[in-house]
Design a protein that fits this description.
- The chain folds into two domains: about 1-40 and about 75-190, TerB-like, CATH 1.10.3680; about 205-270, Helix Hairpins.
- The chain is mainly alpha-helical.
- Helices cover about 70% and strands about 0% of the residues.
- The chain has 14 helices and no strands.
- This is DnaJ like chaperone protein.
- Keywords: Membrane, Transmembrane, Transmembrane helix.
- It comes from Kordia periserrulae.
- It holds the Pfam family DnaJ.
Length: about 270
């Protein structure tokens, strides 16, 4: 469990307090209880002469800064804060239809392995299993905390990931989609951005137009203008502050914008 404890210390920043902090506290307790029940936590023998080294201050303590404005707080979002927020929202969405499928859990695990490596993913999944056991996580309060501290580009990436979770088991329930739409509202993501990301996963007939946030009646010049705007909005460099792993994760959104534009080029002949 030492690896888990050190991961927690490094992962929590502004997520330590508020509703996310409360959910994480419950999840840590659940993970520790599970490890104890399996005999994974052993007390050190009383006659041990090994000297304990002083425990370093947690990483999140060193990252604390004076109170700032909302805009300044959002620019301080770190990879660990995004990671924990992603785990909490994933647990909320996966439980929306009353059943958590193994394929959905595998999606979360595979995503974390791809993003962070196996060791970090294993630690994250211990926390995630604890979150799945907590029944009273307030979606609104969690999202309000995220919205207050997280920049818009990172919130869009969270929404993109949540749609991926709902598609993981091949069965998308109305409860899940409705909850993600509520989450988008709580995160201050407007309807055009929401519909754009949703169209990347559900492919309606007019998906290319929805992804570019335009109507079918758009002129060629309006399509070109929309493409430049969306390419800028979804450019992976927008997530540089979260770390290289998230830049790679954002490439999927960017590629879908490019494909949508290429599809309209072919259809409209320009």
């Amino acid at each position: 469990m030492s690896g888990f404890a050190s991961w927690i210390g490094g992962a929590l920043g502004w997520t330590l307090g508020g509703p996310i902090g409360a959910a994480i506290g419950f999840a840590i307790g659940a993970a520790v209880d599970k490890a104890t029940s399996k005999g994974l936590l052993l007390d050190e023998p009383k006659d041990s002469k090994r000297r304990r080294r002083p425990r370093p201050e947690p990483t999140y303590e060193r990252r604390r800064r004076p109170r700032t404005t909302t805009t300044e707080k959002q620019s301080q979002t770190q990879s660990g804060d995004f990671e924990v927020s992603l785990l909490v929202l994933s647990a909320i969405v996966m439980k929306a239809d009353g059943e958590v499928s193994q394929s959905e859990k595998n999606y979360v695990r595979d995503y974390f392995v791809k993003m962070y490596g196996k060791e970090r993913a294993n630690n994250a999944f211990k926390l995630f299993n604890g979150l799945l056991q907590k029944e009273d996580i307030s979606t609104r309060q969690v999202c309000q905390q995220i919205q207050m501290h997280m920049d818009h580009s990172s919130r869009l990436q969270l929404l993109h990931y949540l749609f991926g979770v709902t598609k993981a088991d091949g069965i998308v329930s109305e409860e899940e989609v409705e909850l993600i739409e509520k989450i988008a509202g709580y995160l201050y993501i407007n309807d055009r951005d929401y519909q754009s990301i949703k169209a990347m996963f559900y492919n309606p007939i007019d998906s290319a137009y929805r992804i570019l946030e335009i109507d079918k009646s758009a002129t060629i010049n309006e399509i070109k203008k929309a493409y430049r705007k969306m390419a800028k909005k979804y450019h992976p460099d927008k997530l540089q502050h979260l770390g290289e792993e998230h830049v790679k994760g954002a490439e999927e959104k960017f590629q879908r914008v490019q494909k949508a534009y290429e599809q309209l080029q072919e259809e409209r002949g320009f």
